[in-house]
Amino acid sequence: MKRVLVLTGGGDCPGLNAVIRAIVKRAEQESDWEVIGSVQAFDGILKDPMEYVVLNNSAVAGIHVRGGTILGTTNKGGPFSWPVKDKKGQWTTVDRSDFLMERLKKLKVEAVINIGGDGSQRISQALYEKGCNIIGVPKTIDNDLSGTDFTFGFQTAVQIATEAVDKLVTTAASHNRVLILEVMGRYAGWIALHASVAAGAEVCLIPEIPYDPAKIVEKLKKRFIKGKGFANIVIAEGAKAKDGALVYQKSTEPGYENIRLGGVAYKLMHELKNAGLEAEMRETVLGHLQRGGIPTANDRILATQFGVKAFELVLEKKFGHMVSYRHPDIVSLPILEAIDKYNFVKPDSYLVHTAKGIGICFGD
Ligand code: F6P
Fold this sequence. Notes:
Elements: E1 2-8, H1 16-27, E2 33-38, H2 43-46, E3 52-55, H3 57-60, E4 82-85, E5 91-94, H4 97-106, E6 109-116, H5 118-129, E7 134-138, H6 154-175, E8 177-183, H7 190-199, E9 203-205, H8 213-225, E10 231-236, E11 248-250, E12 259-261, H9 264-274, E13 280-285, H10 297-315, E14 321-326, E15 329-334, H11 335-338, H12 350-357
Parallel strand pairs: 1-2, 1-6, 6-7, 7-14, 8-10, 8-13, 9-10
Antiparallel strand pairs: 2-3, 4-5, 11-12, 14-15
The site of 6-O-phosphono-beta-D-fructofuranose has 13 residues, from strand 12.
């Protein structure tokens, strides 16, 4: 039997289970392949004792409708930066990638399928350079990977954010308030932009278009004069004012290398007040609700296509490649190319043009 190891790394995302199920179902069509899953990204293989599970048809039955990942995940550490305490009791990291390669050999793993975002795919590339037979599957609700038209999980996050705005509209209207919804997306404004257009927000603030609070106040004042005494603003967590800075916290969690974005909605409320907005304002931070729950049908379909393609790339020995959606096809490209640059919203794109065409203000 040949073995393929599957793992999910980084933040979770609706659709991960659909990818796992598709890999297993496609592998079961070949008589000589067995699928095993590492628990919590590569940690399962690096731990003592190792934690991995055999994935067969019965293990994955019906999981495509479930959010999260049956394998568990982590966005801390990894084989190249494993957190350990030094002699002084301070957290530091060590490279355990050679040890990982030994363990994969010991387990007789012929190929690895790493389902994860840009951080995980950087790990895939580094392992590939060490001789690992690895295939990447992109995932992220943020849709910020440039190697694919869309990532699964994004549609689900947009749906959740849209429904949140829909709900906020009714309470904003009842109280004549300005309600601000902060959504995720890291340094890209995809979730905010799509939810704003879908729900019909009055203002959409994204990292790619730094805003001027005075411009937003100007727009909102006109709207209140017209007698429509309420408004909804969607702001991406990575958005900032023209002369402003990102709102974030440094994480104290060992091995967590990212900054934690969040809190820009509160900042915006103060900026709008200072710029002369007299309306009552309230803010909502949607947070991890955007990553939970069942994936939309489209995300399940995209995830399933990625899973089947990933296993077929293993059969073709196209290692060092990542699956990708290039409408209408599922293709592959070198992981190195996929992680080369981020996918940002282009301020001159047709969707921004559309949003402006229906009167959505970006504060520019
Ligand atoms: O990358 C996905 C994402 O949900 C971002 O949108 C967000 O900034 C970040 O992860 C949150 O990470 P954590 O789960 O560590 O709080």
